[in-house]
Amino acid sequence: MDDKKLGQMLLRAWKMREGAQVTLMMHFGDKLGLYAAAAKLGTMTPRDLSQATDTNERWMREWLSCMAAADFFESDDGETFTMSPEAVVVLADASNPMFAGGALQAPPPDAHIAGVEHALRTGEGFTYGDMGEGTARSVEAGFAPRERAMLMTDVVPAIPGLNEALTNGARMVDVGCGTGFTLSLLAEAYPDATFTGYDPSEPATDIAMERFDEGGNVTIHCAGGEDLPNEESFDVAFTFDCLHDMPRPDLTLAAIKRSLASDGVLVIKEIRSSGDFTKDRKNPVHAMMYATSMISCLASACSSPDGLGYGTLGLNPVALEKLCIDAGFSSVTMHDVGDPTNLFYEVRP
After folding, report:
1. CATH T-level assignment (fold) for domain 3-111
2. Where in the chain is the domain with CATH 1.10.10.10?
3. How many C-beta atoms surround the C-beta of residue 242 within 10 A?
4. CB pairs under 8 A, 24+ apart, for 137-144?
5. DSSP 3-state of 266
6. pLDDT, tens digit, 9 for 90 and up, residues 129-182
7. What was the pLDDT predicted at 106?
8. pLDDT tens digits, residue range 70-120?
9. pLDDT given at position 35
10. Torsion sign, CA atoms 183, 184, 185, 189
11. Average pLDDT over residues 280-300
């Protein structure tokens, strides 16, 4: 097997997904008149486009960032965006034979399209529970191969003392456990430890509950992270690829801090991002990240009126460290274990 060709094939597969999801965002650009308004504005900020289209400013920032990441708009800083004359022809001028907007009117293959449209107009998102069982299974299908390959060989060894703690029967909680896949790997590897999963999505936790034998060493709760016990109950906590999805990750982190032993550890898995739009453009599926955010991550993060709205790329290392320190933790150490999509953090009380 040619490793170079394998890498190219993998990237091509992800680019296909990027195209599907960015096309969905282009559908909304045509349906909500975003391209038409942007053509009149020429150069704009998210606030400019929000005011011109009676849409939500935070969601216009994500949409414009997606369009710029896909090279349909131009932006040097992620703050100001320009629609070129060529983009106007292709995306906004229905009288021009080069106009492609009409092709985007076919219904996108997504069950919660109405929820995304509502969020674009109002800023009000929807939960993973609202997305249904299909989304729960799809999320697992997306991360399971890499989790299966790297969790025991790369992630656990990177955290000092974690393997020993679990081997010796630690009490572990997975906050945002979803369908329980990560817990299933841990429970099999560490039979003397006890595991608890928390997730507010009923479709996901229903799958998780079916996954584990009653009376075993895994317990699942359909509840949010802020519902953790208000006393020391766990030695190890995981939040894997989910803090950025939470409306109030600050409350979840504070709850984990309260329920974690003083010598315990929180392990966080979060999406790679720098907080610098220009640097993040080096990600070959940068646009897909923003589209994914609007379809699921930002939607979930804005699903309550007080949601902080981080979205897929929102929890960069600086933002994440601040959240953890504000929640009462004393230290945050980043670990790069070679996962191309995620970084891992060792957080101590």
Report:
1. Arc Repressor Mutant, subunit A (1.10.10)
2. 3-111
3. 24
4. 137/179, 137/207, 139/178, 139/179, 139/204, 140/178, 140/179, 140/181, 140/207, 143/181, 143/241, 144/181
5. strand
6. 988 888 898 888 888 888 998 999 999 999 999 999 999 999 999 999 999 999
7. 53
8. 999 999 999 999 999 999 999 999 888 788 877 676 555 455 788 999 999
9. 96
10. positive
11. 92
Torsion of CA 322, 325, 328, 334, to 10 degrees: 120
**Closest among 16, 47, 126, 38 to 83, alpha carbons compared:** 38
Mean pLDDT on 52-64? 97
pLDDT of the residue at 107: 52
CB-count exposure of residue 17 (10 Å: 0-12, 13-18, 19+): middle
Q: Does residue 63 contact residue 33 with C-beta atoms inside 8 Å?
A: no
Token readout for 146 is 């890499």
The secondary structure of 170-220 as a DSSP string is -EEEEET-TTSHHHHHHHHH-TTSEEEEEES-HHHHHHHHHHS-TTSSEEE
φ/ψ of residue 67, rounded to 5: -65, -40
- Write out the residue limits of the CATH 3.40.50.150 domain(s) in the chain: 128-273+315-348
| Rounded Cα gap, residues 66 and 60, in angstroms | 10
Structure tokens at 303: 């699903």
Angle, to 10 degrees, between the axis of helix 317-326 and the axis of helix 249-259?
Answer: 50
220's tokens: 């699942």
The encoded tokens of residue 197 equal: 């999963």
CATH number for the domain running over 128-273+315-348: 3.40.50.150
What's the token pair of residue 117? 């449209």
**CB contact at 8 A, 326 and 271:** no
- At which residue do the structure tokens 């790997």 appear? 185
Structure tokens at 162: 């974690």
